[in-house]
Amino acid sequence: MDTQTLYKRLAQHYLHAIKSGALGAGDRMPSVRKLMALHEVSLSTALQLCRHLETQGWLEARPRSGYFVRHPKRVQLVPVAEPASGTPIDPAQYVGIHERVSAIIAQGQRPVKVNLARATGAPDLYPETELRNLAIRILRNKPNLLTKAIAPGGNKELKNALAKRALDYGISAAPDEVIVTYGCIEALNLALRAVAQAGDVIAVESPTFYGLLQVLESLGMKALEIPTSPHTGISIEALELAMQTYDNIKAVVVVPHLQNPLGSIMPDAHKQRLVALCEQQHLPLIEDDSYGALVNDDLPPTAAKHWDTTGNVIYCASLHKILAPGLRVGWMLAGRWHARINMLKYAQTRYNEELSQLVVAEFLQSSAYDRHLRRLRATLSLQRERTAEAIAAYFPPGTRLSVPNGGVSIWVEMPNQLSSKEVFEAALEQGILVSPGLLYSNSNRFNHFLRLNCGMHFTTELDDALRSLGNIIQSLVQQQRSAAA
Amino acid sequence: MDTQTLYKRLAQHYLHAIKSGALGAGDRMPSVRKLMALHEVSLSTALQLCRHLETQGWLEARPRSGYFVRHPKRVQLVPVAEPASGTPIDPAQYVGIHERVSAIIAQGQRPVKVNLARATGAPDLYPETELRNLAIRILRNKPNLLTKAIAPGGNKELKNALAKRALDYGISAAPDEVIVTYGCIEALNLALRAVAQAGDVIAVESPTFYGLLQVLESLGMKALEIPTSPHTGISIEALELAMQTYDNIKAVVVVPHLQNPLGSIMPDAHKQRLVALCEQQHLPLIEDDSYGALVNDDLPPTAAKHWDTTGNVIYCASLHKILAPGLRVGWMLAGRWHARINMLKYAQTRYNEELSQLVVAEFLQSSAYDRHLRRLRATLSLQRERTAEAIAAYFPPGTRLSVPNGGVSIWVEMPNQLSSKEVFEAALEQGILVSPGLLYSNSNRFNHFLRLNCGMHFTTELDDALRSLGNIIQSLVQQQRSAAA
């Protein structure tokens, strides 16, 4: 057995001891010397073992005392509140989000020390070497990949691979039903253009990600923001009420799994009800499932599309957040709008370039994809916990947050209706980029929220950044109190 | 000097002799034996020399007699007619081209022997090896290219390279003004969405390429088809008249260089007048310059954008037809719509993937790009001539065509108002794919035209295909006459 495998096997052994409680929080790990004797391994292997468990967050090193099982801070998280029931829904309105978003993006373009605004994991959480080697091999083996005009119809290998993977989410689709797009954002554009036009009303979750609001704004459509639970997703009662109140809704867009920014996951019964409701009201349901594969369960979540029997659900997804953030490979199943969306895609950007598609197709077909997802989910799970603990420890009282069961973001409610724009600006001064809540609604309802990334390795630098952010919020709260006094 | 260089140097020598008339059409080349003695070269070099000049179209081999300087057929080409002046312009209408186009594309998806429908050159006319090696080197050297989220703002190297290259076309633009898109087609979409909306009227050339008509259809815009000369491009008089007649035109779209399908090139004075007219009428001018680099002159053509002093011209182009048909790298200079188009691009497909951009950027920065373009233009020039000669020789009397001064297509008018759909179907039966004229207008005005590719090597197979096509047209003409009799 080589050293590589050996220390990992030992790590498994101690991880089991920690998880079973045999080694409790705060307990001392056997010393490096003792590990060497116990397992008859070299100094280097014993050290590798401890460092590995340390970077995974299970141990912490204390100067001159050795390694200890990390003490989960067990701070009490106060979850973000459910939307108050019976709150009247704002009238549908044209979206005017772009100016905010581009101002924030422009400000955030300066170099920062810690970027908590992104919605992907650290690059090394993705299979860089494998993807790169695949790309090089494909470039070597496929003649004229860059110089031959792209054949009509799109890449068959990728469509096959995606149709097969869709089965995991309870979707049975023929490869020919797959339309490959430039990211999920193009899929959403095409879906909306297929079913609605400028001036039409689209029901969306509230809060929702600014990408969707920008699409609505760019298409001249109106957003009707439906209250959404941080735990179970869009309120179906509120949506039903909205449908009774407004007769000009043309589509419903939801992110059922790890909603952005809430992190909510719709229970299966809700998804099923939602599909039935939209069908019954003759309203197309657009499902954005960009994050489904990151749900931290043994079984992948079932897509709403699973319950679609009439082609009324347009399923949109992407490999961008789960496999290769540097690639823009999205895809969709357009149900009964297939022919129209196929046409719109062709007229908008033609068929995608081949190389990225072939890379993704080959990776999806291998068992490396499942291994990658398992590893990614496990790492993210730990990072979410540590980030949440740090926030709970450093942010002032009154802060509320939930740790979602998957994904790369945490949605944090700040006390005292603090303005996320002020926090954004003060944090940026210190080289910390956050994503302010005011980007997640056409209203100002979520201005006192932040979406914080938890897809990066929990380093001292990150810990420091979260502490600084906590101090910034604390001092803004105090300023506010002094001003009010 | 290695063999490779030697035979090419000798080829230059004989090419000079042919071009100067020292070796006239029909003259016998010195025999291989004589070439060996004259230049003290091996048999293999002498043969390479002759074969090289043969594939370039300067020599032809006659069985048992050796190589002869090819006799240009000097058939009389009857040019496609100018649009009759004073013809009334059809009222602006919603475009209904997609069904035709997709039916034609679907039919053409079966395997064919000779594809005369495409609008690019043969893959080996593009620098495959260099592009592939570049891609592999970039993949190796740029860490996390596929796994790191794309930084906002788009790739700076490519913007720099494109801004520098734009100088060749008389355009002075800052790198930050460049917006990189997925092909020219996305640029056209964005330009039209920025300046017009569903129901608006867009003035276009007639005939024009179906890609543009599909974009208009997908955006719900109306096309106003302006008569266009096969030699000098859009009729500025007709456009001016149209502007006086219709008050709801929202933009003008032109392809000033190697218009698709006509191959026309607007004289500089026309471009200048057009820019001034649009400016004066407050109508944005959208310039599609996808083919400019293929104009067969020593100096690159000057873009209409050159005469734009107020930001009223939106310049759109692509590397797709001129450098790498397998890549979807387009770009635009959006003039005074920059901010809006930047927003639309971000909301539609985000920033482009990095790899293709880096490959193109590095290639554009090297002298290899100029060498490639020179070689491409020279090869295409010969292929156009040979294709035109074959058409003139094989197609029935009454056929009209012009050989454009650049590009990959020839626009052919068939006699007797023959239906291009019938020709398309009969040719497909014989494994020959052509692009029927009915795709190039919302009307049926160009139904008796074909657009034929001349970007492939002139092989026996191609010669045979053109002969078969001539026979098909001939027999359809005869059928028509018999039916009429």
Keywords:
homodimer; 485 residues; alpha/beta; Arc Repressor Mutant, subunit A; Aspartate Aminotransferase, domain 1; Aspartate Aminotransferase, domain 2; 3 domains; 9-stranded mixed β-sheet; 4-stranded antiparallel β-sheet; 15 helices; 42% helix; 14% strand; transcription (chains A, B); DNA binding (chains A, B)
Q: In a nutshell, what does this entry contain?
A:
Chains A, B: Keywords: Aminotransferase, DNA-binding, Pyridoxal phosphate, Transcription, Transcription regulation, Transferase. The structure is a homodimer of 485-residue chains. Chain A is of the alpha/beta class and 485 residues long.
Tell me what the structure shows.
- The structure is a homodimer of 485-residue chains.
- In chain A, strands 3, 5, 6, 7, 8, 9, 10, 11 and 12 form a nine-stranded mixed sheet that branches. A four-stranded antiparallel sheet of chain A has the order 13-14-17-16. The first copy, chain A, has a two-stranded antiparallel sheet with strand order 1-2.
- Chain A has helices at 3-20, 32-39, 43-55, 98-107, 128-141, 156-166, 183-195, 210-218, 236-245, 268-280, 338-349, 354-365, 367-394, 420-429, 460-484, and strands spanning 59-62, 66-69, 93-94, 114-115, 178-182, 201-206, 222-229, 233-234, 249-254, 285-288, 313-318, 329-333, 400-401, 409-413, 432-433, 435-436, 449-453.
- In chain A, helix 5 crosses helix 12 and helix 14 (420-429) crosses helix 15.
- The first copy, chain A, has three domains: 3-69, Winged helix-like DNA-binding domain superfamily/Winged helix DNA-binding domain (Arc Repressor Mutant, subunit A); 93-124 and 371-484, Aspartate Aminotransferase, domain 1 (Alpha-Beta Complex); 127-369, Aspartate Aminotransferase, domain 2 (3-Layer(aba) Sandwich), CATH 3.40.640.10.
- In chain A, 42% of the residues lie in helices and 14% in strands.
- By secondary structure, chain A is an alpha/beta fold.
- At the A-B interface, helix 4, helix 5, helix 7, helix 8 and helix 11 of A face helix 4, helix 5, helix 7, helix 8 and helix 11 of B.
